[in-house]
Amino acid sequence: MTSLLCSKVIQPASLIVVFETLLSSAATTVDEEKGNPSWQPQADFYVICILSSLPWGGSELAEQVPDEIERVLVGIQAYLSIRKNSSTSGLNVFHNGEFESSLAEKDFVEDLLDRIQSLASNGWKLDSVPRPHLSFEAQLVAGKFHELRPIKCMEQPSPPSDHSRAYSGKQKHDALTRYPQRIRRLNIFPANKMEDVQPIDRFVVEEYLLDVLFFLNGCRKECASYMANLPVPFRYEYLMAETLFSQILLLPQPPFKTLYYTLVVMDLCKALPGAFPAVVAGAVRALFEKISDIDMESRTRLILWFSHHLSNFQFIWPWEEWAYVLDLPKWAPKRVFVQEVLQREVRLSYWDKIKQSIENASALEELLPAKAGQNFMYSLEEGKEKTEEQKLSAELSKKVKEKQTARDMMVWIDEMIHPVHGFEVTLSVVVQTLLDIGSKSFTHLVTVLERYGQVFAKLCPDSDKQVMLLSQVSTYWKDNVQMTAVAIDRMMGYRLVSNQAIVRWVFSPENVDQFHVSDQQWEILGNALNKTYNRISDLRKEITNITKNVLVAEKASANARVELEAAESKLSLVEGEPVLGDNPAKMKRLKSTVEKTGEAELSLRESLEAKEALLNRALSETEVLLLLLFQSFLGVLKERLPDSTKVRSVQDLKSIGAEDDNSSAMEVDTENGNPKKSCEIGEREQWCLSTLGYLTAFTRQYANEIWPHMEKLESEVFSGEDVHPLFLQAISSALQYPLQ
């Protein structure tokens, strides 16, 4: 609309009315008495709409309606004086150890107003906005102005009447979800890399890049082409890289999947071969140096992006620059990052290829997963006598090759193995043997689970036994993280193991000690939660569609009944005599239609009831799952977090770790006998930081499902006297909700 003003299509007064309407709605929203301050993100969005349009027409407005635009800017300043500083520390990619940022820092709206005021004081002159209308001013002046109709702003929900904290927090979450901040700037590069770019020009170029990414998301090559050729008179490769990484790492979630940004970065590297690849490499190095301060969810996305990016460029990277991570302890964030990237690369290629790609830093082979993927306990060795378990395993394999049914196999297990050898040996033999048969490929695994899944279900009907089943799966695939995750995911898909069993297994002692040195357990936990909530989402979509079909069926049934009643009340002549009702053939057809539409409506209603029952059951199970998840986090953190009287913030935790560094981090590497290089903090503190980071990440990621159960979670998990403040801070920062 502001650009149309410049082209003499819209009257300046009409645009000012739009601005003032938005500003009035924003001011009302944040008013404690008249509005609903929980919906401040909506008010901020309206103000950002006004401010972000001014670079494109501020000079025309200042020339044609100077008093009015000044009144708008004063109104925005007044709005900022009554709104609360938008502290969203839980959405920061980088953190310096504190979950709460200082309120003295400027948020996005305050920063944008400063940039616009600076632009106004500079006479609204900027280099990044083209002004094509100036060449046609003589013709445009003769054109016809158009008046804008009054606009009506969307009304926010009413504030809770009972002043419920949880309900207010839920409203704030809904507002942030509906009106997310478009960008959270990452200052990856030194200031001198962009010293020629003025603050307002940086904002405009960011808007260009975000618009191109948004509108051309369906055609990535065209998207990259436009991004590489923006109409600005200065170089912006560093700014473009920062903007792209800000989207890849954006919290709580980026507008598009990481894959989209991977493809755009790849196409930009090909479109600008002399400039952009080096800038991307510089960004990766800078992020690597800050990896210990990066949010856990953002770190996982960076690992996924980087491994995929390298797979598109023959896995070429100067790994010798990072070879020093081998001198760091196994829990050091930099070492874990390199390890996870290499393991992801193996998934995207094959082991020998990745080993070849690190030949300039061959010592890093230590961080690659073991080449042999299976760990079959009952493999036969020549010259050795078969054990009883090996004989049973061989017999089971023979039955599979003979294509015996799952029922026959269960009878054999119940009669021949379980009574003699007990449950643990039975479970081990069955799981190890069937997984070995399905180990050749994903297809083999799926076939085994489909054909013999009921064997697992019969053996492990309850949560305790399912945890033992998961331990056996992990033991068999101990050297193949991907297959462990896939096997467990498939088992949950076939309902052979429950999500609660997976949570219990992840937080079992055998896994807890690995929380800070591997992402495997977190990946499996994330897959289980995703599958759980995807089921709920699918049920809600199905209920919505069936509800629409019910309404259509109701209308069709009602119309059929009306038509039948009209026909029944109609007088017609039969053999010269007046008879009530239409001709028999038509009546028969109408009655048949009424029956069919009634049956269709009844069938849809029954289907709707069944789906609603499934949804209610899933939601009740979700509450149990969330309670178990947070209680599990609380339990393991309580055992390892330092006393709350000594540690009340993450910075305190890091300080303790730094003091203990000499005793815990400077240990001797038992594998090669060399002293390891000092790490910033000790192992226990790094374990706490990693676990707290993932607690924040999961809470933020599943906030939509957590909020309906917040009151129960507060009463049963978050409110105990022995709950550590760091546990509460991790959840508070994720939900943007203060826990008492």
From TrEMBL:
Tell me which domain of life the UniProt entry assigns to the organism this sequence originates from.
Eukaryota
Please tell me the species this chain comes from.
Capsella rubella
- This protein is called what? MIF4G domain-containing protein
Any matching Pfam family: MIF4G_like
The UniProt entry's GO biological process terms, in alphabetical order, are: mRNA export from nucleus; mRNA processing; nuclear-transcribed mRNA catabolic process, nonsense-mediated decay; RNA splicing
Q: Which GO terms describe its cellular component?
A: nuclear cap binding complex; nucleus
User: What family classification does the UniProt entry report for this protein?
Assistant: Belongs to the NCBP1 family.
Write down the InterPro entries for this protein, in alphabetical order: ARM-type_fold, CBP80, MIF4G-like_typ-1, MIF4G-like_typ-2, MIF4G-like_typ-3
Coiled-coil stretches are 529-577
Where is the secretion signal located? 1-26
Alphabetic keyword roster: Coiled coil, mRNA processing, mRNA splicing, Nucleus, Signal
Record-annotated MIF4G domain positions: 1-118
